[in-house]
């Protein structure tokens, strides 16, 4: 039972990242009709926003400590972050410690800007082209973006630790009446799940309860009529592209403490996220979220020893297996609408 | 009267045939005038450095390339000479190899077997490389070693740790300086027993490819021989990025040691996840839970950050060693690049010097002559103490370092501390050891 609950938690956690990325993909597809293969790269750039902020906070000046020597036997250069000299060592260290949560604020304008620039600068020229062209150009863009990141940050993973107070794990089992030490779960993974849930709720609320959201939903349903009413729907869709980029970026920022970011982390998520979108139903926002969590949980269970000994290799194919079954039984995906990608 | 009919179609056909014939790769049809593949004729000799310049191991590849450039500089008489000054063989004079100036070409393995073979092939065919060296993966090393054997050039392996490279996939033209999975197990096991006792239950997570399998087999055999029990061994896909669903079952498995047979990004993530799940603070079976990373790399330890603290593993070489050779190498490399070399840089620097030295001693670049000079060669002064290039399998036998993630690093490079230097005798195995059986060295191929 405890192992079962642990895998549910793990699944929800993986599902959080899938759902956030898939939500952004669906927003873009639903509004602009573009299949954005650069979406994984946006997730990666989000994670590197956290890395960048960490680097900015730890920008240091060097002093020479004659009492110690470096690896070549020369007097050692000691680095002190500017931030510690400005605000004092305690506050400075605390700011550096909290760099990942602070990067959430830092990344939102950056990601909105990148999304806006990407749509206006490149993708808008491909609206009237076939989907294959859109896929090729966005995939190419993804490669360019990851190579740029690699150029500046290298190929190795970079640690972006969670704040000290949120590292480590909690005994969830004990809280809900299990034995001590039965269900121990990392705090940051819980934070990630609740953060993702919050972002998803915020996006839905934005679309549901604001005038802007209402117009966007109307545009998704019938772009032409909304345009005839004299509403500049393109501009709103461009802003939605920025929001979708920000959602992917936020997913990336908060993901850093779970697994250290590297330049190809976006590609690792990209294919899975597309499967999530297809399983959820092209263009369906609730479908993307539901499928994200569903596939996350299934993937977790498929990685258990029980599953891999019963069906060897199941952990590697489960996602695709489920996708095949769902598409055979529900060709439009779990919550797909009629008419999307069917013309 | 005879009439010769030359048709347009006929000309095109024969032209195409002749063209195709000329365009055939010369790799397997080297001119019989040369005594061996890519025999250097002018005043220079070309070495082919095949390292990952893109892909997940690009940073290790970049460090290898720095070491190669340093080695070439030293061979040509530049710089401070580095480990050429401490090397026990004095055949190298700093005037290139056999009087020919050393130049090099580079290829990008991308840490993919097919890409690595293609770049090696191109360096041999187009650039006339006499020797191929480098790499940061066993899958790649085995693939390129096979190619070099067919092509008739020497392959001096870079960072490859699978038993198979000098085991079932060994080749007469291939040589490995780096240690292997068996050696890691043999060196680590006594230290693990001394530190954690002989009554332990181990759980293995293993990267699902050639290196992972041989690493798991080796460390499992070595720890079981000490009395440890193996609770479970779980293979994880090489492409896995999040290991939470593999770590969670460890919590309630009854195991009190987790052995991560992972390298690179896999290692960084699985270790980070294991620490997140509080494994290091756990008490199981009345003992403190421990994590072991059999193959350490400082570059990767950096990626895992604070999570490596106190965790035991093994490594081929570390810059903090205090013998004259290591100090000379660190000084030479550190002065040129501003930071200490990695173990990948060290092993490829050694391989380049060893190759050059073998050419000098053999008096030829002929791969068969060079191979003969390397076989059974005993040397010292390259940072690992007395070393033997064993003739039977082309594996170097030398001391192995058992290291631990440092609790209080004094700099960003000071991540590992040497716990023990395991003597070569303790990690030596017979050539017909079951973990290395199945392949034949075969005969040397000079290509011509």
TrEMBL record, chain A:
Which InterPro entries did the record assign? ABC_transp_permease (IPR001851), BCAA_transport_permease (IPR052157)
Q: How does it sit in the membrane?
A: Multi-pass membrane protein
Query: Which of UniProt's keywords are assigned here?
Result: Amino-acid transport, Cell membrane, Membrane, Transmembrane, Transmembrane helix, Transport
Indicate where this protein is primarily found: membrane
- Determine if Transmembrane helix is one of this entry's keywords: yes
UniProt KW Transport keyword: yes
Residues annotated as transmembrane:
15-35, 42-61, 91-114, 190-216, 237-258, 270-298, 310-328
Q: Where in the cell is it found?
A: Cell membrane
- Family classification: Belongs to the binding-protein-dependent transport system permease family. LivHM subfamily.
> What's the protein here called?
Branched-chain amino acid ABC transporter permease
Report the source organism. Pseudodonghicola flavimaris
UniProtKB/TrEMBL annotation, chain B:
Could you list this entry's UniProt keywords, alphabetically sorted.
Amino-acid transport, Signal, Transport
**Pfam family name, one:** Peripla_BP_6
| Signal peptide (from-to) | 1-35
Stretches assigned to the Leucine-binding protein domain? 44-406
Give the source's domain of life in one word. Bacteria
Q: Do you know which PROSITE patterns this protein is assigned to?
A: TAT
Give the transmembrane ranges: none
**What protein family is recorded?**
Belongs to the leucine-binding protein family.
Name of protein: Substrate-binding protein
């Amino acid at each position: 039972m405890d192992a079962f609950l642990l895998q549910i938690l793990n699944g929800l956690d993986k599902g959080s990242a899938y759902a956030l990325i898939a939500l952004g993909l669906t927003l873009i597809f639903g509004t602009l009709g573009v299949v954005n293969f650069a979406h994984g790269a946006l997730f990666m750039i989000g994670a590197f926003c956290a890395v960048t902020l960490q680097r900015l906070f730890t920008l240091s000046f060097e002093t020479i400590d004659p009492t110690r020597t470096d690896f070549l036997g020369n007097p050692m250069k000691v680095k002190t972050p500017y931030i510690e000299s400005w605000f004092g060592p305690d506050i400075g260290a605390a700011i550096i410690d909290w760099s990942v949560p602070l990067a959430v604020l830092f990344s939102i304008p950056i990601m909105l800007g990148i999304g806006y620039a990407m749509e206006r600068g490149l993708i808008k020229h491909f609206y009237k082209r076939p989907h294959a062209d859109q896929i090729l150009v966005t995939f190419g863009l993804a490669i360019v973006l990851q190579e740029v990141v690699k150029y500046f940050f290298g190929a190795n993973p970079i640690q972006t630790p969670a704040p000290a107070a949120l590292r480590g794990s909690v005994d969830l089992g004990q809280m809900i009446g299990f034995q001590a030490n039965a269900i121990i779960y990392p705090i940051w993974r819980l934070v990630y799940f609740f953060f993702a849930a919050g972002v998803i709720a915020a996006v839905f609320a934005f679309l549901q309860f604001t005038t802007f959201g209402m117009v966007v939903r109307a545009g998704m349903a019938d772009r032409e009529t909304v345009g005839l009413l004299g509403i500049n729907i393109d501009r709103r869709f461009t802003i939605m592209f920025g929001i979708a980029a920000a959602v992917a970026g936020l997913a990336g920022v908060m993901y850093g403490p779970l697994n250290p970011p590297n330049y190809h982390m976006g590609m690792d998520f990209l294919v899975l996220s597309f499967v999530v979108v297809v399983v959820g139903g092209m263009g369906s926002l609730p479908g993307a979220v539901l499928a994200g969590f569903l596939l996350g949980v299934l993937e977790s269970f498929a990685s258990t020893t029980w599953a891999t000994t019963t069906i060897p290799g199941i952990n590697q194919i489960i996602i695709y297996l489920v996708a095949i079954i769902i598409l055979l039984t529900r060709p439009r995906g779990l919550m797909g609408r009629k008419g999307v990608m069917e013309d | 009267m005879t009439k010769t009919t030359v048709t347009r179609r006929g000309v095109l056909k024969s032209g195409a045939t002749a063209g195709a014939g000329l365009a055939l790769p010369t790799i397997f049809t080297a001119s019989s005038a040369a005594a061996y593949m890519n025999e250097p004729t002018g005043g220079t000799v070309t070495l082919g450095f095949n390292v990952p310049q893109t892909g997940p191991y690009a940073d290790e590849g970049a460090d290898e390339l720095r070491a190669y450039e340093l080695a070439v500089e030293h061979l040509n008489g530049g710089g401070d000479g580095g480990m050429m000054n401490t090397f026990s063989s004095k055949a190298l004079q700093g005037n290139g190899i056999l009087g020919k100036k050393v130049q090099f070409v580079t290829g990008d393995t991308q840490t993919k077997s097919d890409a690595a073979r293609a770049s090696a092939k191109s360096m041999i065919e187009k650039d006339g490389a006499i020797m191929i060296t480098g790499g940061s993966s066993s899958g790649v090393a085995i693939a390129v070693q096979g190619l070099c054997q067919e092509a008739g050039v020497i392959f001096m392996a870079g960072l490859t740790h699978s038993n198979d490279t000098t085991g079932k996939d060994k080749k007469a033209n291939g040589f490995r300086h780096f240690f292997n999975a068996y050696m890691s197990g043999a060196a680590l096991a006594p230290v693990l027993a001394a530190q954690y006792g002989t009554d332990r239950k181990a759980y293995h997570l293993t990267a699902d490819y050639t290196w992972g399998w041989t690493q798991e087999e080796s460390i499992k055999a070595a720890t079981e021989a000490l009395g440890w029990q193996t609770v479970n061994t779980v293979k994880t896909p090489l492409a896995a990025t999040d290991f939470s669903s593999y770590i969670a079952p460890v919590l309630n498995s009854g195991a009190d040691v987790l052995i991560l047979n992972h390298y690179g990004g896999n290692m960084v993530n699985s270790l980070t996840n294991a620490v997140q799940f509080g494994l290091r603070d756990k008490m199981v079976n009345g003992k403190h839970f421990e994590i072991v990373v059999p193959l350490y790399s400082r570059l990767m330890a950096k990626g895992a950050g604070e999570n490596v603290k106190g965790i035991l593993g093994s490594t081929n070489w570390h810059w903090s060693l205090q013998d004259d050779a290591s100090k000379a190498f660190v000084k030479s490399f550190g002065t040129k690049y501003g930071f200490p070399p990695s173990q990948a840089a060290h092993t490829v620097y050694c391989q380049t010097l060893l190759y050059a030295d073998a050419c000098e001693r053999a008096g030829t670049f002929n791969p068969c002559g060079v191979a003969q000079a390397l076989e059974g060669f005993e040397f010292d002064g390259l940072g690992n103490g007395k070393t033997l290039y064993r003739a039977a399998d082309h594996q170097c036998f030398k001391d192995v370092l058992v290291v631990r993630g440092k609790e209080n690093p004094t700099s960003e490079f000071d991540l590992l501390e040497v716990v023990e230097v395991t003597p070569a005798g303790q990690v030596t195995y017979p050539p017909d050891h079951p973990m290395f059986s199945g392949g034949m060295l075969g005969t040397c191929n000079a290509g011509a």
